[in-house]
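To close the section, here is one more complete example, presented without commentary so you can practise reading it yourself. The ligand is glutathione.
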Amino acid sequence: MTSSIKIYCMAHQDRSDRVRWLLEELGLPYTDVFLKKSAGELNTPAYRALNPLGRVPTLVDDSIVVHESAGICLYLADRYGYGKLCPRLENFQERALYNQWMTFSTGSLECVVARMFTHVGTPEEKAVTHAFVEEQCTIFKKLLNPILEKQDYILSSGFSAADIMLGAVIPGAEPWLMAGNPPIQNYMKRLMARPAAVRAKVF
Ligand SMILES: N[C@@H](CCC(=O)N[C@@H](CS)C(=O)NCC(=O)O)C(=O)O
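Output:
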């Protein structure tokens, strides 16, 4: 079967990781299109027409073009894994939680942790950033731990694209979320053992 699905990325380990993992879970063929930032390939008019931000990942599926890794995974799960890798729309309770965790992964968790790696400023300003990340991650643990102590995946209905998003993002927060914290460590072990994650070279 030939595939028209293309993932524009810079490397397997950039934010295209979650998209590739989901495609592997879905068993869909895809092609990676590697762009070289140093060669200006994120800035060409052709690429900016697909992704005006000049970032990766971007997904092209025939005439459909999507950027934002969470947006791409929402699209793929709805189109190709409906009711399997995402709850059905009429399952309002589960779908609401799914929406919450899909957007939490990049909108709250990833962007908070990214501050630690991008912060600039005086030592005092860095200490403020550090304290903010610590405080937020303490809350994240209070949210996630009770769920992961009672079930294997973030939704009670089982594995979904929300686990892919969380699983791809949590390792960036390793010192704050995983160290000394068995519920999230064990959750990550379960996710890392998934054959699709291994095939996608996420970890
Ligand atoms: N929120 C976006 C973030 C996309 C993003 O910032 N991607 C990085 C690579 S992981 C990027 O393209 N950086 C541009 C650059 O390094 O110039 C998403 O989740 O897709």
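Once you have examined the tokens, check your reading against these statements. The beta strands are 5-9, 31-34, 58-61, 64-67. The domain at 5-80 is CATH 3.40.30.10 (Glutaredoxin).
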